[in-house]
Design a protein that fits this description.
By secondary structure, the chain is an alpha/beta fold. The chain has 4 helices and 5 strands, in the order E-H-E-H-E-H-E-E-H. It has one domain: Glutaredoxin (3-Layer(aba) Sandwich).
Amino acid sequence: MTDALAIEAGRAVPACNLASPARSEKPDFQALRGQVIYVDFWASWCGPCAKSFPFMNRLHADLLDKGLQIVAVNVDENPAEAEAFLRSQPAAFKVALDTNSECAQLFDVQAMPSSYLIDRNGVVRYVHLGFRESEANTLQEQVNQLLNENP
């Protein structure tokens, strides 16, 4: 059981049991240690989520070779809804399914989307609730800062 506080900057990333929509490699935050991880919780019904996907695709294309891993965690109960969303908003990055909301509960997700920037040591450094295009530059600056830090 988790405590009642939302995960916040300075806490270690929780271990989550996630599924992959492609039934291939399951995303594992612990296995990604040593890289900067952008974890984004989203749902098919979320308008701002649709706006965040092009931004995350750009980040992925620009920064994958510098050590950025993006994991978009879908919280829809029905995986078919996530698959329909992904047909209209394709993802170049890793997508995971959290149909029982276990991971969302561990992170104590408060909004859709909710993004967590995790440093190379597995520590949550920044939390963003919602997505606004006006905040994209700040998100990118924070990602760049974490990428430039030595582990």
